[in-house]
Every structure is written in structure tokens, then in C-alpha cells.
Specification:
Blueprint (H helix, E strand, L loop, with lengths): L18 E4 L6 H8 L4 E4 L3 H9 L3 H7 L6 E5 L7 H11 L4 E6 L3 H5 L10 E4 L5 H4 L5 H7 L3 H4 L4 H18 L7 H12 L4 E2 L2 H8 L3 H13 L3 E4 L15 E4 L2 H7 L8 H23 L4 E7 L5 E8 L2 E7 L11 H9 L4 E6 L5 E3 L2 E5 H7 L8
Parallel strand pairs: 1-4, 1-5, 2-3, 3-4, 11-12, 12-14
Antiparallel strand pairs: 6-8, 7-8, 9-10, 10-11, 13-14
Length: 387
């Protein structure tokens, strides 16, 4: 069912001062800004004419602000298109401290490559994530989310599958090809497919390189491009006060489980349970990232894996927060599923432990709280405790 994304109240809360707002295309940054700051002066650098003008003469922004703007908020959308504008904004912030500058971006690559330091740290960096179940309320459906993800542009369309395919094609065409980030689009396409098998897994760049027939250094570069374009993220190992030998490599996820499902090839020997399990784990991961980004207190996302193979999918650690989470695409809970959490609890008795599964009933098994995954996702709200 199609619905306007304007009707959805986002959980993101803006700071009072100037800030950067990063997030992948289609996550609703522009829609949210236009609703939250309807009177702001708005510069859309995706508009070719606007981009050409400011690319040739970034100092034009000085003249516009000096002439006076009708609002004390100035928004520059997709600022990475013209990194030189950041120097101008920095000068303007010194001269006009009453103006709030909001700079959005769907890629950090150009900013990093040009040596921009995000205005010397004087503007905070915030992120916009795909929809969370709490934001959608009754519109949230777990099965649909596992198939097509939670990107607002996709969720709100009449044909989510077609929109998702077009979304990926747009990203590859506009963000990869036009910016000349890679020379061989075919190799990059094979890499995306090979990387989909690593979604929710510990990264093995050598294996990915072998699958897509490029060298390991090329794969490392491709992974960096994905992260810079905000299309993927990596989760590091939790190693505080480690009592065991741990894995040294991070886990890899695409930023949205629908993107993963769209990229992941399927065939006769591909198990629905395996693919569905990776999608469910990814859906939980993106919700946890959103929850951490939108809450006020500090916190980070980790996973835990010993070299002996004992693992916990997620560890959240921060101010007033220490939770270990295991995700299982199963409607029943077995003792075997709890081994990683119990072993983690031996090393970290301070941690809360929870198993998320596809069943309907809350229960406690061997001292571990077991929650229906859908119930957990629907209750996940930044202002509330995680459990």
C-alpha cells in the first residue's frame, strides 16, 4: 500500500546547533528536513543547475547569506557533491553564529578524499537510518520487512521489489559510475553479489576476492567504497576484559536487509532458512544501529566470537548499557541456541542476555530471556530501555 512518508513521525531528534546529517539515499533525510524546517533556505545540490552554479562559484553562498535570508536555518542537501562549500560554510558560521547550518550527505567519500575535516569538529555529525518498526507502527509487517527492507523510498512505494531494484541501479549509476570510483563496473557487480554471501558473517576478503575474480587489495577498496557510500557497515569484536582468544575480524552487513535480499542470488541449493536467517539478523542489526544513533546516551554495537567458534550476534555496550543478543530464525528455542549467550555470561555476569526468535511467547530458558523478534523490534524506541 502506497503512503506518503510525510505521515510517518521519525525518531530522529535534531541538535540545536549546526550539524551534518548523513544517511544513504532514500532514507528520508530531505523529506524530514522539509517537514521539520519548512521556512529554511534550501539548496538542493542534486539539482544540476544549482550544482553547476555553486561548483563554479562556491563563494556565491557568501553573497546570498550577506543579502539576508528569510530564516535562521540554511540547509545544503547532498553537500558531498561540492566539498568546497564547506570552507564557505565555515566562514559563514564564524560571521553569522545565529544561523543554523544543516548539511546532508549520502556519501562521505568525496569529503574524506578532499581532506575536509567536517568544519574542524564544530558541527556535530548525525545519521538518518531506514525506518524502524516503532516509526511505522501498525504499518510494520515483519515478513514484508524481511523481503524488501525498511528504506522509506521502498516501503512507501506501490511496488517495493521494483523500487528496490531501481534503487540499487541508481546508486551504482550515479554514485559509482558518475563519480568514477571504480574502473570496472562488471567486477564491482560481481563483488556485490559475492559480498551478499558475507552479510551477517565474519569478513573474509580473500574468499570474496576469489569469488569475484579480483585481488584482495581490490576487494578491500570495494568494501571501503561501500562504507563511504553508507551502503554497508562492519561490526567489531567486543574485546573488553577478554578472558578468551577472540576472532580478529569484524562482521559485515549491508545497511538494509532488503538491499541484501536484492543482491543475494538464489538457486536450487540455496536454503530459505539460511537466507531468511541472514535477513533477520540484518534487520535486527539495522534497528540496533538506529536505536543507538537516536538515543541521547553513548553506546556502541559489537559482536563476540571466540577462536573456538563460540559466538554472540550482538553486544551493545555504553552508558548504562550492556546487553548480549542472539538472533535465531526459529519458532522454537533449544538449549543449543543459548550456548553462546551462556558462555558470554560466564565472562561477563554484568551483562543482560536475550535471545530473539520467531515464536510468539516470551519465556526464560536457562536464565536467558527469550523474546519474539517482532515484539522486540516494535518496542525498540530511543527513549526507552532496550529491554
Amino acid at each position: 500500500m502506497e503512503f506518503p512518508t510525510q505521515m510517518i513521525t521519525r525518531l530522529f531528534q535534531p541538535p540545536m546547533q549546526s550539524f551534518f546529517l548523513f544517511g544513504p539515499r532514500g532514507t528520508g533525510k530531505s523529506t524530514w528536513l522539509q517537514n521539520a524546517f519548512p521556512k529554511a533556505r534550501y539548496l538542493d545540490l542534486l539539482d544540476p543547475q544549482t550544482a553547476r552554479g555553486y561548483s563554479a562559484h562556491p563563494e556565491k553562498l557568501l553573497e546570498i547569506v550577506a543579502a539576508g535570508i528569510s530564516s535562521n536555518v540554511l540547509i545544503i542537501d547532498e553537500v558531498q557533491k561540492i566539498p568546497e562549500l564547506l570552507d564557505v560554510v565555515h566562514m559563514l558560521r564564524e560571521k553569522y553564529p545565529a544561523i543554523q547550518f544543516i548539511l546532508t550527505g549520502s556519501s562521505s567519500r568525496k569529503l574524506k578524499k578532499s581532506g575536509v575535516d567536517l568544519m574542524a569538529g564544530r558541527a556535530v555529525v548525525k545519521t538518518m537510518h531506514p525506518f524502524m518498526a516503532t516509526e511505522l507502527g501498525e504499518l510494520f509487517a515483519l515478513e514484508s520487512a524481511l523481503q524488501t527492507g525498511m528504506i522509506p523510498l521502498v516501503v512507501s512505494s506501490l511496488d517495493p521489489l521494483e523500487t528496490l531494484d531501481a534503487y540499487l541501479a541508481l546508486y551504482i549509476r550515479e554514485e559509482v559510475q558518475q563519480e568514477s570510483l571504480i574502473r570496472n563496473i562488471g567486477a564491482f557487480g560481481r563483488f556485490l553479489e559475492a559480498a551478499s554471501f558475507s552479510h551477517g558473517c565474519v569478513l573474509n576478503t580473500t574468499e570474496i576476492a576469489r569469488e569475484c575474480m579480483v585481488n584482495r587489495k581490490t576487494v578491500a577498496g570495494y568494501l571501503e567504497i561501500l562504507e563511504d557510500l553508507l551502503l554497508s557497515f562492519q561490526v567489531p569484536v567486543f574485546s573488553r576484559r577478554a578472558k578468551r582468544k577472540l576472532s580478529a575480524h569484524p562482521k559485515f552487513y549491508f545497511f538494509d536487509c532488503g538491499v541484501f535480499r536484492s543482491l543475494r542470488p538464489t538457486g536450487p541449493i540455496d536454503s530459505d532458512q539460511e537466507i531468511g536467517g541472514a535477513a533477520l539478523e540484518g534487520l535486527v542489526a539495522q534497528h540496533l544501529r538506529g536505536w543507538l544513533a537516536y538515543r541521547e546516551a553513548e553506546g556502541k554495537l559489537f559482536f563476540w566470537r571466540t577462536r573456538a567458534g563460540m559466538e554472540v550476534d550482538f553486544v551493545l555496550y555504553g552508558e548504562g548499557l550492556f546487553v548480549a543478543i542472539e538472533v535465531k530464525n526459529s519458532r522454537r528455542v533449544s538449549t543449543k541456541m543459548l550456548r553462546g549467550l551462556k558462555r558470554f555470561r560466564e565472562d561477563y555476569p554484568e551483562a543482560q542476555t536475550v535471545l530473539l526468535f520467531r515464536g510468539q511467547d516470551r519465556l526464560v530458558k536457562d536464565g536467558v530471556l527469550c523474546l519474539p523478534c517482532e515484539e522486540f523490534l516494535r518496542s525498540l524506541k530511543p527513549g526507552n530501555p532496550i529491554l
